[in-house]
């Protein structure tokens, strides 16, 4: 199926993130294991891109390289033309919910990256993001007192509070139950529409990627390369029983080699 | 369990044991083993002649200084060795060889270096707590979730900030447990050290009471005091585990 850019779509104004010919191999017991093979991708300002692939295919590695946590073996990642050499508060990585600091309460977690601000500005932002992610009343709760979904929202709030340009989410809802996961997708879209961050979202869940993304980057098994990029030309909120949704979803199922019958 | 029962159960169990102790002693003819009442009188006697306070203070003094100096040197060293992999790899084998050597094995060397006195005993307690604290601090750093360190770096923390704002709070729960256990070890070691290396303290009291005329009532009195003070120290240390910022590290919560 051809990828069609429909006229309604706000075609991305400019490319912010550029991944060029990225390859990665690890040494495992003296043996080189190729994880990524010549991956190139451009991501535009304010775009929501899902990187979809089977577990262990190397998509997390890709996100870690883009986040600046590990240097690539070959190739280059640049943001606004500047090569990524390490992690940076302008681009925040959201781990699964275990990324929140268990020794800080909700307020202090959200305020973690705000130590350079004045006290007033800091507490203003904390208040704002506590409300944005729906944690009002839990300002002084510790993570262990929160549910998985609340911890995940807390981590998103902590990331947003430093006003980054980009968010990198690594299977953020993977550890949640399926109902919470659905709620969280809606929350994330609501927040994304409010703040318009550029989002790179790694998942192994086909439905999730088609529900969320502007574009789905379908990865192969290891060593991962991009098999196809599918543009999801359905406006939000998406009707997940619409013909177009099912069409796009099924095309990805086929691409991955799954006839979607159980 | 209901609160009252939780308290009543151990109290009544101890009461039964004391009764059995009294019964056993009264049926025994040698009169060497003291009964519970004799032990209480022994404690009163020690209190009257001033030895109780003097010996308890002497023992606590040695433990305090030995333990504190081990904390001051051992924890930073352990954190450093955990943080710096190269240093950790270099020093770890040495630590693992020194660790199984009982601190009591150092007594002759301690006396050789520091003579018979407080310094020797304090040195032995330092040895007893230094390596366990170092090893525990090192392991605590190793068990920090890398996700937290990455998150800290992502928010732009410099290396010292990372140590202060992520490493330090992350290792706190494990360090508190290590401090509690190590203080317990120190209290065990001080008794043994005092039997040989000094002439005051609760350990000395045990040996002295036996040598000076088989005063087993004072021996058992000293043992009871050691037990009670040990319990007290442990209770104080346990309080730190309930601080809100470290409670996450304790599974029982």
Describe the structure.
The complex is a heterodimer of chains A (262) and B (253). By secondary structure, chain A is α/β, with parallel strands linked by helices. In chain A, 31% of the residues lie in helices and 26% in strands. Chain A has 2 domains: 43-71 and 84-90 and 165-257, P-loop containing nucleotide triphosphate hydrolases (Rossmann fold), CATH 3.40.50; 104-163, no CATH class. In chain A, the strands form 2 sheets. In chain A, strands 6-7-8-3-9-10 form a 6-stranded mixed sheet, sandwiched between helices. A 4-stranded antiparallel sheet of chain A has the order 2-1-4-5, covered by helices on one side. In chain A, helix 3 (119-132) packs across helix 4 (148-161) and helix 6 (206-212) crosses helix 7 (243-256). Chain A is globular, with a radius of gyration of 19 Å. Chain B has 253 residues and is mainly alpha-helical. Chain B has 2 domains: 1-31; 35-249, MetI-like (MetI-like fold, Orthogonal Bundle). Chain B has helices at residues 3-27, 36-48, 51-83, 85-98, 107-114, 118-142, 146-154, 159-196, 202-211, 216-240. The longest helix of chain B is centred in the C-terminal third of the chain and has 38 residues, at 159-196. Chain B is globular. In chain B, 34% of the residues are buried. Classes of the chains: A alpha/beta (262), B mainly alpha (253). Chains A and B meet through loops of A and helix 7 and helix 8 of B.
Return the average pLDDT of chain B rounded to an integer.
89
- Biggest sheet details of chain B: none
Order of helical and strand elements of chain B: HHHHHHHHHH
CATH architecture of the largest domain in chain A: 3-Layer(aba) Sandwich
The CATH architecture of the largest domain in chain B can be named as: Orthogonal Bundle
| Secondary-structure class of chain B | mainly alpha
Q: Domain count of chain A, please report it.
A: 2
CATH top level label of the largest domain in chain A: Alpha Beta
Low-confidence stretches of chain A: 1-10
Low-confidence stretches of chain B: none
What coarse outline of chain A follows from CA principal-axis ratios? Answer: globular
**How many helices of chain A in DSSP terms?**
7
The counted number of beta strands of chain A is: 10
CATH topology of the largest domain in chain B: MetI-like fold
CATH evolutionary superfamily of the largest domain in chain A? P-loop containing nucleotide triphosphate hydrolases
Number of self-contained structural domains of chain B: 2
The structure class of chain A reads alpha/beta
């Amino acid at each position: 199926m051809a990828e069609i850019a429909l006229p309604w779509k706000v075609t991305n104004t400019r490319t912010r993130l550029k991944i060029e010919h990225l390859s990665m191999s690890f040494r495992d017991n003296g043996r080189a294991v190729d994880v990524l093979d010549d991956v190139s991708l451009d991501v535009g300002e304010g775009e929501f891109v899902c990187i979809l692939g089977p577990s262990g295919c190397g998509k997390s590695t890709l996100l870690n390289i883009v986040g600046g946590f590990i240097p690539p073996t070959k190739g280059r990642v640049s943001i606004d033309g500047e090569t990524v050499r390490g992690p940076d508060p302008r681009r925040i990585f959201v781990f699964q919910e275990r990324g929140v600091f268990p020794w800080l309460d909700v307020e202090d977690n959200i305020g973690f990256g705000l130590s350079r601000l004045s006290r007033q500005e800091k507490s203003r932002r904390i208040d704002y993001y506590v409300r944005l992610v729906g944690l009002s009343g839990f300002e002084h709760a510790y993570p262990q007192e929160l549910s998985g979904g609340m911890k995940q929202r807390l981590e998103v709030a902590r990331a947003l509070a430093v006003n980054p340009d980009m968010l990198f989410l690594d299977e953020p809802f993977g550890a949640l139950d399926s109902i919470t996961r659905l709620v969280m997708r809606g929350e994330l879209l609501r927040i994304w529409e409010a703040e318009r961050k550029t989002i790179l979202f790694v998942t192994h869940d086909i439905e999730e990627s088609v529900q969320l993304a502007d574009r789905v980057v379908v990865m192969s098994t290891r060593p991962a390369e991009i098999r196809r990029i599918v543009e999801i030309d359905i406006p939000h909120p998406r009707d997940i029983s619409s013909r177009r949704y099912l069409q796009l979803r099924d095309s990805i199922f086929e691409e991955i080699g799954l006839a979607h019958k159980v | 369990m209901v609160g009252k029962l939780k308290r009543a159960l151990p109290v009544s169990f101890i009461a039964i044991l004391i009764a059995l102790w009294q019964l056993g002693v009264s049926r025994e003819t040698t009169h060497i083993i003291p009964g519970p009442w004799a032990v209480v009188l022994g404690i009163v006697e020690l209190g009257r002649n001033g030895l109780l306070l003097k010996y308890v203070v002497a023992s606590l003094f040695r433990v305090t200084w030995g333990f504190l100096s081990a904390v001051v040197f051992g924890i930073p060293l352990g954190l450093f060795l955990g943080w710096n992999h190269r240093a950790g790899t270099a020093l770890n084998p040495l630590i693992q060889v020194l660790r199984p050597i009982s601190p009591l094995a150092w007594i002759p060397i301690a006396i050789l270096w520091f003579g018979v006195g407080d310094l020797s005993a304090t040195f032995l307690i330092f040895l007893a707590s230094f390596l366990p604290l170092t090893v525990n601090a090192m392991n605590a750093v190793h068990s920090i979730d890398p996700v937290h360190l990455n998150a800290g770096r992502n928010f732009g923390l410099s290396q010292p900030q990372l140590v202060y704002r992520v490493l330090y709070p992350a290792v706190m729960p494990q360090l508190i447990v290590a401090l509690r256990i190590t203080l317990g070890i120190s209290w065990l070691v001080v008794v043994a050290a005092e039997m040989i290396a000094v002439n005051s303290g609760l350990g000395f009291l045990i040996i002295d009471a036996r040598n000076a005329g088989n005063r087993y009532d004072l021996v058992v009195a000293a043992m009871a005091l050691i037990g009670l003070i040990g319990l007290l120290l442990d209770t104080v240390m346990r309080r730190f585990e309930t601080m809100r910022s470290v409670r996450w590290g304790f599974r029982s919560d």
